[in-house]
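Now for one record.
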Amino acid sequence: MQYSGMTDPFRTTETGGRAINYYGAGVSTGIPVSYCDGIIQRVGGQAYSTYLSDFNARKAVASPIKIEITGSYNSSAKTGVANIHISNTSGSTVSGTMQCILTETKIAYAWGAGTSAPQDSIFGAARDLIPDQNGDAVSINAGGSIDKTRDFTIAPTWKPGDCCLVVFVQGSNKEIYQAAKVHVTQIGIAESTIKYPVMLKNEPNPFKDKVTISYNIPVTSKTSLEVYDITGKLVKTIVNKVETIGHKEALWDGKDIKGKKMPSGLYFVKLACLPARQVSGKTELTSKVMLLR
């Protein structure tokens, strides 16, 4: 989480209280304070490489618990119920606090003026802490599990397709043991009920002349399939159209948009699906493919 100054337009009583009372963040100074997994603190803006290093360090730490979120969402009333199942896979009791947060992303808002990278939107803003900033004390026996239920409401000005529920369990030392996230509009869709869950695969890999890119479209979506080189430059757009539900295949012949053969190396295939009826948020998958000339 990141807490800016007292002028933060997205600050709520709950997020402000958690910043001050729980983390003791010096919010009155207006200096951003961030915490990776609750325990790695960074004061002030940092280079991306710093945050990435923090993330990778925590990613390597095994978690003692698993979190699953199911439930239902009523698009007309903009209300829903989240069923949270937390299981302890370790050999000892895990205790801490469970937090449930409703977030919204892609909020139009200009910030960072005067810096080298001004922005026009906010990602992952905490809209509501459910039920409040204190969360819910939990204790899970070794090999056991618990279940919690949370009701939520999407405010009229929020976009449901850009809202997510985030659940995490945090220890007494503020370490976040595990977290899970689900798009609000997908909360009632169990993975097992989707005939074509999102998938992206390249065969053969490595390849010499051409590679078959296989992917699934779970619902009718505006679909794009693109190839990027290792520097992040777009090499070729293979698919850019509305596609219906089902299994799809496309070919890449190892050439760029002008028909020029690309050199040997690592490339990235990016699949993006935006449901045509905006029933859920945008889904993106990226896979690697090696071209050998």
Notes: The chain has two helices and 20 strands.
